What does this fold into?
Amino acid sequence: DAGVTQSPTHLIKTRGQQVTLRCSPKSGHDTVSWYQQALGQGPQFIFQYYEEEERQRGNFPDRFSGHQFPNYSSELNVNALLLGDSALYLCASSSMTGDNGYTFGSGTRLTVV
Amino acid sequence: QKEVEQNSGPLSVPEGAIASLNCTYSDRGSQSFFWYRQYSGKSPELIMFIYSNGDKEDGRFTAQLNKASQYVSLLIRDSQPSDSATYLCAVRYSGYALNFGKGTSLLVTP
It folds into this structure.
């Protein structure tokens, strides 16, 4: 039973560039959330996708956008990268309600130089 | 701003002892509560969740919830060196987002 898979594992980008991160949810899960975790901090909620629509968004600028595909996989796009966007980006999948918790992928470490 | 507060630690306990990790939250309307463990350089791993007041036990772990006092705690019995990690408390208010604390670093010494 495959867990949550994310790609790539690591990424180095230049300030001002754009990046796309990818996530495949755990088998049986249909909901995908994205979190940003800075060093020494807890994860911060970016947004959640269900039925191919963004159904909740955290306090992130619209440079952060996403998409969910019919097979429940998801992408996170970040435009006009800033140095402060350097972080671990975590994808979490769950059932529609999330009542049994969220399963996290191994994350993508993004470094903006 | 809905806050989730945790003591950053490090909390140091000897092997075999009980580790007690605490978390307070600001919104009385909070619905559900989660504890995650995160090893250095790894992603968070769900330990357990609790919705109702009282205790919930799962193996060596016990989660305790007191909604009146707005705190949730995690007890780890018979602590092992492999339990050394950062423990993240997450609170779900309305909607679907988890609000995380900054985590408590636990060190179990042999």
In short: Chain A touches chain B through 26 residues (CB under 8 Å). Residues 24 and 73 of chain A are 4 Å apart (CA to CA). The mean pLDDT of chain A is 96.
